[in-house]
Amino acid sequence: MRTSAPIIALVIGALVVLAAIALVLRQVHVSRLRGVFDCVLWRRGVRGRENWQQGLMRYTTDELHWFRALSWRLRPEKRMRRAEIVSEARSIIGEKTPGGEDFVMVSLTLRGGPRVRMIMASSSASALNAWLEAAPMGLVHGDAD
């Protein structure tokens, strides 16, 4: 039994189109969740090298979830509990978003030593700061209760 080349090419093309649609639907699903904003995270890559990776950050009731852009996973790549965040530092980066807003590099120190660096728009950094300050008493290290 012989299969013709056009049929094989058609099947491969259909699979590529279905994979592209699945990636787009995953990105749309993640970006439509509540509390999501663009965030570039400094993290170890697949080959062990550290670099900046584009993604989406989402804050929930007690956790920050970071989703890598163009990934198959529906679950977050990185989770940070609010109770683990010890301190936050910000510095303005000279670049601006297309709308004229400043980019900010936010550095979070987590309990146990690891440090998480991320770049986001100034308004997103303000929302993140408000989320951190809205923690219930006693949840954040250093509260006076």
CATH top level of the domain at 33-133?
Mainly Beta
How much of the sequence lies in strands comes to 35-45%
Radius of gyration: 20 Å
Mean pLDDT score, rounded?
82
Description:
There is one protein chain. The chain has a domain at 33-133: PH-domain like (Roll). It is an alpha+beta fold. The protein contains two helices and seven strands; from the N terminus they run αβββββββα. It has a seven-stranded antiparallel sheet with strand order 4-3-2-1-7-6-5, covered by helices on one side. A hairpin with a 5-residue loop joins strand 5 and strand 6. The protein starts with a helix and ends in a 12-residue tail after the last helix. The mean pLDDT is 82. The protein has helices spanning 5-31, 122-133, and strands at 36-44, 50-59, 63-68, 78-81, 85-96, 102-110, 115-121. It holds the Pfam family DUF2550. The chain crosses the membrane at residues 6-25. Keywords: Membrane, Transmembrane, Transmembrane helix. This is DUF2550 family protein. InterPro entries: DUF2550.
Which features does this protein show?
single chain, 145 residues, alpha+beta, PH-domain like, seven-stranded antiparallel beta sheet, 7 strands, transmembrane helix
Outline the fold blueprint:
Blueprint: H1 5-31, E1 36-44, E2 50-59, E3 63-68, E4 78-81, E5 85-96, E6 102-110, E7 115-121, H2 122-133
Antiparallel strand pairs: 1-2, 1-7, 2-3, 3-4, 5-6, 6-7
